[in-house]
């Protein structure tokens, strides 16, 4: 169902956006990336965020040669213009269909950093979804799980993220077939 939706959206382009607009829509999420916003209390959640999110941010900074950072301020971190330029340039290497998929995944995870980790095969779908829901998972551990709500949300988010990631990979893949001439 989600792959069909992505295909139809890419075919129809109902919002009539061009490539630059799709790239900007994805990159704008960097300013409000889930991994960049941290809490100050409780200490156990602060430590969990540090242990789980910092390695992903460090990976992205090293992989793309950028500075992302994090903040406990409601204003969030100050993302350098060069970081946005580098990521914009990187996304420009994808075709329109793949960009539709990237924007879809970014919107699901609320994170450009996690999406890049998925697209680069640094993270699995399960890891990315868990990291995007880190605070919710923390609360579930503390207060308990509402099976009909939390379980459904988790499975739906995994399905949407997996579909978007697969869509990006399928739209970015290229292969050629070389036929050998048979000698008689």
From TrEMBL:
Protein name: ATP synthase mitochondrial F1 complex assembly factor 2
Family designation: Belongs to the ATP12 family.
Biological process annotations from GO: mitochondrial proton-transporting ATP synthase complex assembly
UniProt cross-references to Pfam families, sorted A to Z: ATP12
GO CC terms, sorted: mitochondrion
InterPro entries: ATP12_ATP_synth-F1-assembly, ATP12_ortho_dom_sf
Organism: Marmota monax
Keywords: Chaperone, Mitochondrion, Transit peptide
Protein location: Mitochondrion
